[in-house]
């Protein structure tokens, strides 16, 4: 699914145009927030270059690439900790003759045969020392070598590198794209709905959500708290729940914000679709007693709570404050 979305992206279409015009650059810089999309794009890129049928997805070459064991494809820096020694090893390797010399069994015989591809992920986290080392490959590209950097943004990448690499943007995805992909892969609809709504368009986040079984329960409990916490005397009973534990509070506040945003949509009567799905009843229930001003205030207090967590205020204090402030907003702004 993700593969299909990438194949339909502008980045890929532009790259294919380069390919068919025989204008492949020796250096690329791809920008994309989503780590999973970056990883998948690397495979797509490699198979397009190396497969004699332009990335058929079925041949021996494609098979090796998708199993991460093709001798011509090298991956670096998934952990963001690439050091100078590794950069030196990359350079040394890249100047050796092509991989075909040692892979005689390969059936590959097209234009891409023998090309070597070096993918470096998290390029924005490479130290200047490592980047300066790598510069050699950008300035004097070895024959049949493509070096492709992948980064979240260009911030942190040296100008000397940027100016020598062809810049391209990976696509961003909608909640709908992600929802369809997850359902297509057999995830339960309810889970797919939440994960896609909360993913912010990131497959990486969406998968983290669907693979965590506690996630759904936590999400549901957030609705319960917002529906039922009506008096300040009830706050004490809530703040010691697992929902507000050190490990969970951040996500709880994220959920509060999402739910309250839909409450804001409800009370304002705006014609905007909810972020939450199939929760119209809950949203209507929570909306009782809110005005547009009070829900705006409540959201602001949730954001303040998130900021307080960053400044090392205890989870219990933050939970207490947020719940009180939400109640206060409700009564003050009626
Ligand atoms: Zn193929």
What report would you give on this structure?
This protein is α/β, with parallel strands linked by helices and 334 residues long. It folds into three domains: 2-172, Rossmann fold (3-Layer(aba) Sandwich), CATH 3.40.50; 175-212; 213-332, Up-down Bundle (Zinc Finger, Delta Prime, domain 3), CATH 1.20.272. It is 55% helix and 7% strand. It is built from 16 helices and five strands. Strands 2-3-4-1-5 form a five-stranded parallel sheet, sandwiched between helices. Helix 8 packs antiparallel against helix 9. The longest helix is centred in the last third of the chain and has 20 residues, at 249-268. The two termini are 47 Å apart. Residues 101-110 have low confidence and may be disordered. The protein binds zinc ion. The site of zinc ion (ZN) has 9 residues, from helix 4.
Note the topology.
Layout: H1 2-7, H2 10-20, E1 27-31, H3 35-50, H4 60-66, E2 73-76, H5 84-95, E3 116-120, H6 128-139, E4 145-151, H7 159-162, E5 166-169, H8 175-184, H9 189-198, H10 203-210, H11 214-228, H12 232-239, H13 249-268, H14 280-287, H15 292-310, H16 315-332
Parallel strand pairs: 1-4, 1-5, 2-3, 3-4
Bound molecules: zinc ion.
Short description:
The chain has 334 residues and is of the alpha/beta class. Helices cover 55% and strands 7% of the residues.
């Amino acid at each position: 699914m993700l593969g299909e979305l990438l194949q339909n992206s502008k980045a890929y279409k532009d790259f294919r145009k380069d390919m068919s015009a025989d204008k492949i650059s020796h250096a690329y810089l791809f920008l994309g927030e989503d780590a999973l999309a970056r990883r998948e794009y690397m495979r797509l890129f490699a198979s397009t270059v190396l497969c004699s049928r332009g990335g058929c997805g079925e041949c021996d070459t494609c098979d090796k690439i998708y199993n991460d064991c093709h001798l011509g494809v090298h991956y670096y820096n998934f952990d963001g900790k690439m050091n100078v020694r590794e950069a030196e090893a990359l350079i040394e390797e890249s100047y050796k003759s092509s991989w075909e010399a040692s892979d005689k069994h390969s059936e590959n015989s097209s234009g891409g045969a023998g090309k070597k591809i070096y993918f470096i992920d998290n390029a924005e986290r490479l130290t200047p020392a490592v980047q300066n080392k790598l510069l050699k490959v950008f300035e004097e590209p070895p024959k049949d070598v493509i070096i492709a950097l992948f980064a979240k943004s260009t911030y942190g990448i040296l100008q000397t590198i940027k100016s020598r690499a062809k810049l391209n943007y990976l696509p961003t995805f909608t909640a709908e794209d992600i929802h369809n992909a997850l359902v297509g892969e057999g995830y339960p609809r309810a889970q797919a709905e939440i994960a896609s709504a909360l993913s912010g368009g990131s497959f990486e986040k969406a998968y983290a959500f669907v693979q965590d079984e506690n996630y759904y329960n936590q999400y549901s409990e957030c609705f319960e708290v917002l529906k039922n916490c009506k008096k300040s005397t009830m706050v004490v009973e809530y703040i010691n729940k697992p929902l507000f534990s050190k490990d969970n509070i951040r996500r709880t506040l994220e959920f509060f914000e999402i739910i309250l945003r839909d409450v804001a949509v409800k009370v304002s009567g705006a014609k905007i679709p909810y972020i939450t799905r199939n929760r119209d009843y809950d949203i209507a229930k929570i909306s009782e007693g809110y005005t547009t001003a009070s829900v705006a205030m409540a959201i602001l207090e949730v954001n303040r709570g998130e900021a307080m967590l960053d400044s090392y205020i205890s989870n219990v204090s933050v939970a207490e404050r947020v719940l009180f402030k939400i109640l206060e907003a409700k009564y003050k702004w009626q």
